[in-house]
Amino acid sequence: MAMEQVDRPQLKKALGFWQLLFYGVAFMVPIAPIVIYGVVTQVTGGHMAMAYLLAMMAMLFTAASYGRMAGEFPEAGSTYSYTRHGLNAHLGMLAGWTILLDYVLMPALSYVVIAVFGSQLIPGIPYWIWIVLPLLLVTIINIVGVKQMAGTTVVLLFLQLGVLAYFFVMAITGITQGVGQGFTFRPFFSENFQLGAVIAGTSIACFSFLGFDAVSTLAEETRRPRTDISRATLIACLLAGFLFIAQAFLAQNLWPNYSSFPNVDAAFYFVAEQVGGQPLSLALTLGMIAAALANAVDAQAASARLLFGMGRDGVLPKRVFGALHPKTQTPLWNLLILAAIGAAVATQTIDTIVSLINFGALFGFLTVNLSVIRYHFMTQKKRRGSAVVKHLMMPLMGAIICFILWINLPSLSKIAGFLWLGLGVLYEAFLTHFFRRDPPSLRETI
């Protein structure tokens, strides 16, 4: 067994805290409210800022759970690895299989967003070129190596932050000059506040936070995973949440009549044009393209490492998914497979892709929260003082919230998600002779 561990392929340790933090914030797309602003504002009755505040609080519990499990098990498999160690090998495999919907489809979603906004920016360029060129660029960046991936992410992140700063300045200036209803707390609470409507909006707003968990997929490539993964995950969640809330707060104060948008899908742009005209709208379009490109780079990197973790353990075919390029030490075949999947899935609509992503992500979040309770509180018996809060109360709250959001997903999302989960059960039954043996991961690593 010792020889098997020595020969086990390992990813190269090259990342520090700041690279992880930038990666996490970029994955969550700081300007994400632009895409869902109109829908969430109407669903919540003008309380999108409150929906984002609740979503951030909910996700912080889960972010803490990912950080704790990453410190104990600094492996590339993330959700799959943590559930496998914290609960059992069978659930670990199903968690990894299900959250593949999140990781594998996220790059495709980014390509579609780039194509949609790019086609509006330069209508003369065919739609399919806006899909293919970013796909090739993202794949090449990830093949070259993790440090190059992280560097690209930082550049694209600061482009987004520059656009946001432009919007914040114009929005604050507009409000102080009398545009909208002034600086009020109505985006958080007003006489029209309805808890059920805000919770419904929160389930949509949670989508903007998907990606903080991807920081943990880089644990094996992090020099100090026990401290840096946890810190980067929590701080990334807080920073992104602050930016989301600030955008919603300013936009809703600028345009308080949420039922009067000429086009709900482009609601944020109507708000921006009111205070910044065409220059601000153009900047937001360019920022959204940069954001989607950064998300695609990060999502493909995370997906490749999840597949690598499962392939190295034999859950997926090891010769393909568990192999690393000898020079760059990156999972080359996984990256090429993901590029092919991205090209195929990019033919679907944004709504279809998002519905599948939400199912896989929330299921994975649920299992990781439960893994913290089982591993730290029950198995390791960490029950003294603040350990009860960290290892029982916080992950329990995270699990409850994720479960509520998961069962309240739209019908399409649940139907497609359970079909995928069912395929995972059948595949695991095949690998384990109808559950009479442990999955390959457990047999090879204990």
Protein model, in words:
- By secondary structure, the chain is an all-alpha fold.
- 73% of the residues lie in helices and 0% in strands.
- It has one domain: Amino acid/polyamine transporter I.
- The protein is globular.
Task: Please state the overall shape, judged from the principal axes of the Cα atoms.
Answer: globular
Which second-level CATH architecture applies? Up-down Bundle
Largest sheet: none
Helix share of residues? over 70%
Structural class: mainly alpha
How far apart, in Å, are the first and last alpha carbons?
9 Å
Total number of β-strand segments?
Answer: 0
The domain count comes to 1
CATH superfamily: Amino acid/polyamine transporter I
- What is the typical, i.e. mean, pLDDT? 84
Strand portion = under 5%
CATH fold-level name: Amino acid/polyamine transporter I
Q: Low-confidence parts, pLDDT < 50 over ≥5 residues?
A: 1-6, 442-446
Helical segment tally? 17
Oligomer: single chain
CATH class: Mainly Alpha
Order of helices and strands: HHHHHHHHHHHHHHHHH
- State Rg: 21 Å
